[in-house]
Amino acid sequence: MEEDDNLPAADSALQRKHAAMIERLSNSHQSRLARKPNSESNSTFISTSSFLSRFSESKNSIESTLSRIRQTPDPHTNPTLKSELDNVSISIADLEKLVAENSFSLPSYEVRTCLKTITDLKQLVEHVTSEVIPRKKFSFKNKSTKKITTQNDTVSEVPNVESKDSVLRVLDSPGFRGKENEVLVKEFGRGNDEEIREFVLSELKGCDVRLMGSVRALFVHKLIDCKVYVGPVFGSVLIEEVTNCVFVMASHQIRIHQAKRCDFYLRVRSRPIIEDSDGVRFAPYCLKYEGIEKDLEEANLGEETGNWSNVDDFKWLRAVQSPNWSILPENERVGTVDISS
Amino acid sequence: MGLLSIIRKIKRKEKEMRILMVGLDNSGKTTIVLKINGEDTSVISPTLGFNIKTITYQKYTLNIWDVGGQKTIRSYWRNYFEQTDGLVWVVDSSDLRRLDDCRYELHNLLKEERLSGASLLIFANKQDIQGALSPDEIAKVLNLEAMDNSRHWRIVGCSAYTGDGLLEGFDWLVQDVASRIYMLD
Ligand SMILES: Nc1nc2c(ncn2[C@@H]2O[C@H](COP(=O)(O)OP(=O)(O)OP(=O)(O)O)[C@@H](O)[C@H]2O)c(=O)[nH]1
Ligand SMILES: [Mg+2]
C-alpha cells in the first residue's frame, strides 16, 4: 500500500491514466461502431429472431439425436454410442457459445431461457448416458452436489482460520441485533460519516424498526414478525431469512433471499430480485418522516421508477408469472406510514 | 510445433486475454466492469446470466466475462472456465456475515483444473464503506496464504463506487497474464 503523503500525486497520475484510457476506449468504440454494418460474418450481431431460430434448430437436432440414441437396440454393445454422445456434448457447448456471443444484444429474458434450456439439455445428456452406458465406465467429475448446501445453521461465524480481529470487527458493525418486541429507532447523521456506513439488522423478533436518514448499505438477516421502515439506501439492501415481516424501503438495489410471507413496499432504481422465497408481495414505497424528500433526492431516489413491480425470481426462469411473488392488492396496502417522532 | 505453442502464437497475434469475473452476488462485479469501461453505474440490476465486455486495455484486448453470482446461478460458473487467462474474484468487504460463504466458494473454484493456470486477482471491493475490512484482513479471512504455491495471485483493495484501486488491480492482472502468455514481448 502507498504511504499517505504519496496519495495526491498517485491520485492525479491515476486520473490522467484513467482519462487516457477512457479516450482510447471511446475511440475504439467508435471504430467498432463504424465497422459494424459489414462486420465479420461470424455469429456476433445477429438479430434476436434469427438467433432464436438458430438456437431452437440446434436444440431440436440435439434432442432428436438423443432420442435416437436412446432407442438404439442393445446400446451396451454399440461402440459408436459414446462418441455420438460426446458429439452431442460438443454441440451443446457450441450452443452455449452462441448464447454467450449474443448475450449482450439479446433481451435478458431470452438469455436466461436459453441458459435454462442448455442446463436441461446437459441433464438430458447425463441421463441418456447413464441409461445407455454402464455406470462404471463413465463418471462425471463435475456433477455438482453442493447446490443443496445452505448456510442457515451458522448463526455466529467463527471462521476456522485464525482471524480473531476480524471476528471482533464483525461484532462491531453498527446495527440492531438479537432484540424481541422492541421499537428500534436510528437516525443517521446527515452529511457526516454515518451515511457512508453499512448497517445491520439481525435476529429480531416482533420488532418495529425505523431507520431515518441515508445509509450506504443495509444487511438484513433472520427477522420474524417485524416491521421495518427505512429511508434511502444509497447502495444495496441484502435481505436473508425473513418471515412474516413488512418492509418499507428505498434503495438502488434490493436482493431478497429466503423470504416467506412478507410484504415489500419498495422504491428501487434497478430490478428487485427474489431467490428461494415464497408468499412475498410487492407494493410502491409509502414512507414519510420529516425531511424524507430531501434525503431521497440526495440519494438519487427522488422519483418513482415503477421498478417495485419488476421483480425477477431467480428460482423461476420462465415466461409465466412466478408463483412465489405477487403484487399486493391495493385494498390490502397500509397507506402512507409516518414515522416522524 | 506443439499445440500449446500454436495456441500461444495465435493469442500472441491477437493480443487477446480472457478474463473471468466471479464472486458472490452483490459483491460489485458488474459495477467494476462498467466503471473501468467508463460507463454509467447508477442503474445496475443483479445479473441474470452473464455480460461480456470487450475493452482495450493498454495494448491488449480484454474479453471480460461478468457472471452473475446469485446462489441459484453459481452452478453456471463452470460453463465459463475454459481458456480463462485471468480470474477476478470480487469480495464485498463490508458483507462480514457472508465471508464464510465467500471463502468456501473461492476455494471451491480454485480446485477447478481448468482454472489452474489463470492468474488470480482478488478485489477487496467497497473500501469506501466505513465498516469494510481492509485487504489484509480479507486475505486472512479468506485464507489466501493457504493457496497453491504455483498460483500467481494478488489482493487489491478497491471501490467500484469511487474507482480507487481498479486500475491498480487490472494493471497487475494484465501484466501478469501478459508475462506468461506473451512472454518476453
Ligand atoms: N458503496 C459501494 N457500493 C458498491 C461498490 N461496488 C458495488 N456497489 C454496490 O453493490 C451493489 C451490487 O453491485 P453489482 O455490481 O450489481 O454486484 P454483482 O457482483 O454484479 O452482483 P451479481 O450480478 O448478482 O453477481 C450495487 O448496489 C452497487 O451499487 C463499492 O465499491 N462501494
Ligand atoms: Mg452483476
Automatic annotation (TrEMBL), chain A:
Residues 134-316 form the C-CAP/cofactor C-like domain. This is C-CAP/cofactor C-like domain-containing protein. One of its GO terms (molecular function) is tubulin binding. The gene is LOC101252883. GO terms for cellular component: cytoplasm. Belongs to the TBCC family. Its main location: cytoplasm. It comes from Solanum lycopersicum (Tomato). Keywords: Acetylation, Chaperone, Cytoplasm. Pfam families: TBCC, TBCC_N. It is found in: Cytoplasm. Coiled coil: none annotated. One of its GO terms (biological process) is protein folding.
UniProtKB/TrEMBL annotation, chain B:
InterPro entries: Arl2, ARL2/3, P-loop_NTPase, Small_GTP-bd, Small_GTPase_ARF/SAR. One of its GO terms (molecular function) is GTP binding. SMART domains: ARF (SM00177), SAR (SM00178). Mg(2+) binds at residues 30, 47. GO terms for biological process: protein folding. It comes from the Eukaryota. Keywords: GTP-binding, Lipoprotein, Magnesium, Metal-binding, Myristate, Nucleotide-binding. SUPFAM superfamilies: P-loop containing nucleoside triphosphate hydrolases. GO terms for cellular component: cytoplasm; microtubule cytoskeleton. GTP binds at residues 23-30, 69, 125-128. Belongs to the small GTPase superfamily. Arf family. This is ADP-ribosylation factor-like protein 2. The lineage of its organism: Eukaryota, Viridiplantae, Streptophyta, Embryophyta, Tracheophyta.
